[in-house]
Amino acid sequence: MPCTVIVGAFWGDEGKGKIISYLALKDKLDFCVRTGSVNAAHTVWKDGQKYALHMVPAAFLYEKTRLLIAAGANVQVPRLLEEVELTKVKGRMGVDMNASIIEEKHAVQDKASVVNKGIGTTGWGVGPALEERVRRTAKLARDIPALKPFLTDSVQEINDGLDAGKKVLLEGTQGFMLSLYFGTYPYVTGRDTGASAIASEAGVGPTRVDDVIIVYKSFITRVGAGPMPGEISKEEALKRGWFETAAGTGRDRRSAPFDFELAKKNAKINGATQAAMTKLDSMFPTCKGARTLEVLPAEAKQFIRKVENKAGIPVVLIGTGPDAMDIIDLRKQ
Ligand code: IMP
Ligand code: MG
Question: What value, to the nearest 5°, has the Cα angle with vertex 205 and ends 204 and 211?
Fold first, then answer.
């Protein structure tokens, strides 16, 4: 803080939504800016209720956070309106007037594309919508009557907020290995998903970012096609308690053990200053619900220490269960 970027370390679904919702409540965030698009679902649990958010920023749990959709983001209008209703955030939701729009035709094109089928895209139409933006024929938020109540110059809001010392969180989506530039091309998404790109989409210059938190999960998952070193079978994943299905599409997630070398490399390329580790309780079940470091078993502590040594940054937030508050917070108060 005051300006923090949250970036996913691997192929997405590291639990960024959970980390962001905790930070919103704990740090009383002033702004949370969602980048990317509707293909990414951020899961937030609060008091036993689950939210799989495709558009509304994951910081909605703290009722004073101003929620923004970045100028570089891509808006799926019906889904946004649905989630605004569900989360009851109409009065504090803003959409940058220059954000671009995904239309139904983009989803149709995405699903009809043989190439995209091979990649295993989410089918939301994000790739075709981005193509249209690059062709300069896309609709923008300011062209959509239903978005009128939400339109704002988010770039000005965010930068004025930073001038005033407000707490701003830039919410990255997906994971670094799905980056168009740095990921497992062509098995990637349609944009760069790295920390610099997250700041760029939000209209925040690199010198204004104070912290980059890279989010690791205690094992790795991937949905869709493409290489995944160390991948284990579904049977093995079930046995280890690692088997997951996608929050957005319901597809099976592939899984692999934590990759220390990749963790190190991606921390460096993203300029990470700190790390979060989610789902420690999937690896070490006795960690479930832990909220202090002391109660963790020695092997769990060793795992965290090994990640820190490899990546060269401290692991400051450790997720031990699905609720926003199931976390060990090791940041200096
Ligand atoms: P697209 O982003 O829908 O074009 O899909 C491209 C690739 O990124 C596919 O392998 C998708 O499964 C993957 N992908 C896109 N969004 C997410 C996400 O939020 N979590 C995990 N994988 C994703
Ligand atoms: Mg997800």
Answer: 80
d(CA 110, CA 203): 28
Residue 54 Cα, ligand 2 centroid: separation in angstroms?
A: 9
Quote the pLDDT of residue 333: 65
Q: How many Cα atoms sit within 13 Å of 106 on the Cβ side? A: 27
Collapsed DSSP state (helix, strand, coil) of residue 155: helix
Contact 67, 94 (CB under 8 A): yes
Per-residue pLDDT reduced to its tens digit, 223-260: 999 999 999 999 999 999 999 998 778 899 999 999 99
Residue 34's nearest CA partner among 76, 81, 2, 71 is 71
What is d(CA 29, CA 167) in angstroms, rounded to the nearest whole number?
5
Residue segments in the chain with a per-residue pLDDT below the cut of 50: none
Residue 333, token pair as written in the block = 């108060």
- Give the active site residues: 13, 42
What the block records as the tokens of 27 is 């740090």
Q: Pick from 55, 109, 122 the residue to mutate for probing ligand 1's pocket: most ligand atoms within 8 Å of its CB.
A: 122
Which residue, 324, 316, 315, 257, is CA-closest to 289?
Answer: 324
Q: Is the CB of 12 under 6 A from ligand 1?
A: yes
Strand order in the sheet with 315-319: 151-152, 93-96, 66-69, 31-34, 168-171, 3-8, 211-217, 274-278, 315-319, 327-329
pLDDT tens digits, 10-46? 999 999 999 999 999 999 999 999 999 999 999 999 8
